[in-house]
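Can you give me the bound-state structure? Components:
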Amino acid sequence: DAKTTQPNSMESNEEEPVHLPCNHSTISGTDYIHWYRQLPSQGPEYVIHGLTSNVNNRMASLAIAEDRKSSTLILHRATLRDAAVYYCILAPGNTGKLIFGQGTTLQVKP
Amino acid sequence: NAGVTQTPKFRILKIGQSMTLQCTQDMNHNYMYWYRQDPGMGLKLIYYSVGAGITDKGEVPNGYNVSRSTTEDFPLRLELAAPSQTSVYFCASSSGGHSSGANVLTFGAGSRLTVL
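Here's the bound-state model for the whole set.
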């Protein structure tokens, strides 16, 4: 299973943009890049996913490098409610088997 | 829609006892998953299923058993509980099918298990 590497923790100020990096140098051509987040004492929730092109939704944007070996989750204006653990995951195109890594703990300061 | 429902929410077991964590989904999803999350750690995949009658091991299957007799239900069985199985257990589902890597997981609220 292809692995991802994320920083253990990051800090941001409220109302500022946040860029959460993820390295996945062993990604295969059919692996999708998913991001989930887990708020304290809750189950993970879906944020965004993509294959090759950049993606935008109401929660965030996903920027995928041209060689697909890295990606960045962008929260355009961090709020206190965005404080969570953010997981970058590779989802194989043929099995749907999702392996979670350690994730990045995002702290948002008022 | 209820989504993914897990029961019980909390349970305390004695070493050597057995129990089943229940998971049911009402979204007609083909794929279902069981993860465990130890304190301060990320999620580890225990077992997953791509359809009724089909299950496969994840990263940490030892000490657990699963079955998938219906599309809706995916129970997780602990046969001889050990303190190392103290954890929060999350069930999840996704629609699966062609290009299943694009499928989004919906998680349940979790079941907190303590083995003493």
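A couple of observations. The mean pLDDT of chain A is 92. The first strand of chain A starts at residue 9 and ends at 13.
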